[in-house]
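User: Hey, my collaborator sent me this sequence without any context and asked if I could get a structure. I don't really work with proteins. Can you help?
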Amino acid sequence: MKRYMMIFNLFLLPITMVAAEQTLWVEAPKKAVAGTLVSLSIHTQSENGLTVALRDMAGKDIISSNTFPAKNSRKEGMREEIALLGLPSTLQSGSFLLMLYSGKTLLWQQELSVEMGSFLKEDIPLNQKMSDLRSDDDPQKVEEAIAIHAIYNTFHRRPFDEKLSLHLPVTGGRFSAWYGDRRRYCYSDGTSALSIHSGVDIAAPVGTPISAGGEGTVVFTGPRIVTGNTVVIEYGPGVYGVFFHLDRIDIEEGSTVDADTHIGVVGMTGLATGPHLHWEIRVAGIPIDPLSLLATPLDMASSSPIQ
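Assistant: No problem. I've predicted the 3D structure and written it out in structure-token form, which is a compact way to encode the shape of the chain:
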């Protein structure tokens, strides 16, 4: 299967706004694509962190994130703060507002034109065992979901190297599913359920080595009912790499990793119809296309063609 993705540039030409008394400069995109990363660079004289929010034109808040300090400011005499927002794959084409706050005070806003992404549809037949695993009402699944989403939404404010880039965690595999796929799980009893795929699946034989894909800290390792053996790595403030269905975990929680650090091997634990690695990226809790970040600075990401 070949899938061709249009190349979308986030049009990150500097958009500069000078606030009163020359104390605030903001660089932000004017266009973006659903399912990708939006980055803002804020130069300020304030020592405090800020909040960036995306709001629709009806006034409804869509997503928000805190800023973190850049390691090196590009403007003399000012501090640089970076904000990263993941745009949900479900966003429709249209106009939104990027808004910058200090506490409850609005400092800056700018219109953002979002284009809807293009995603595949996929039917996934499940046998009796997999049907039961996904559909059974198990309180442990709820507890596990709450716990892992609490990790996704954890933000550690710290200076961060926004030049961090990511690499595919598996070599020699093939893409068997894509970010944003609109899935229908077909249960063994003839019923079905809809879902949206939050990452990419890389099919490879059981035992294929998995690397961390980027620098960071391992914040979770362990088995989960649906995702099987799972590893979560914090790549940066509010940015997490998620690895599902491992056959074996070879890294410990709290470990510091780089892109090439071995973390485990491919398997098919949990809800899996064949051996593969599910890899996803969460930004401020929102899953975005991991392939849009490959070997690309996190603050200047754009989608790349996949063949």
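In plain terms: The longest strand covers residues 105-115. You can pass these tokens on to your collaborator as they are.
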